[in-house]
Design goal:
The protein has about 140 residues and is of the alpha+beta class. About 35% of the residues lie in helices and about 35% in strands. This is Putative protein-export protein SecB.
């Protein structure tokens, strides 16, 4: 099947690593395996069939934990959608499934480097994110 979109660019819109102090760093270093990865995707039309797709990763502990670090990245993809795409469902699939599946390997590498460079080496996300499956679950 021919792709009905083209990613014309990607960039890091925002990136954050917050560890407030040394006691928190020591606490988090021992507990970071309990942190959860959350994903959010949003988009907005720019002009002439160009869409900005923001894929946001957040890696954090439960809200009730006081000593915690927070890691977040917003990775933006500039997407040119084929003018033949007019169906809302098809557009939704491009934004929520196709683009994230294509950019995720780079996004994960950048995010893991952020964690390593923030003093938390060796973190791996055991489960690979299947945006196709998430999209199907959302549709049901």
């Amino acid at each position: 099947m021919t792709e009905n979109y083209k990613i014309i660019g990607n960039f890091i819109k925002d990136m954050s690593s917050e560890t407030p102090d040394t006691p928190t760093y020591i606490f988090v270093r021992d507990k970071i395996s309990k942190y959860k990865l959350n994903i959010d995707i949003n988009s907005k039309a720019v002009k002439n069939g160009i869409i900005e797709v923001n894929t946001i990763l957040r890696f954090s502990d439960q809200p009730e934990i006081l000593k915690k670090a927070h890691f977040e990245i917003t990775y933006t993809s500039i997407v040119k959608v084929d003018e033949k795409v007019s169906d809302k469902k098809e557009m939704e699939k491009i934004i929520l499934c196709d683009v994230p599946n294509k950019i995720y390997p780079d996004l994960e590498r950048i995010f893991l480097n952020l964690l390593t460079d923030s003093g938390y080496p060796g973190i791996k996300f055991e489960k690979k994110i299947d945006f196709t499956e998430l999209y199907k679950q959302r549709a049901n």
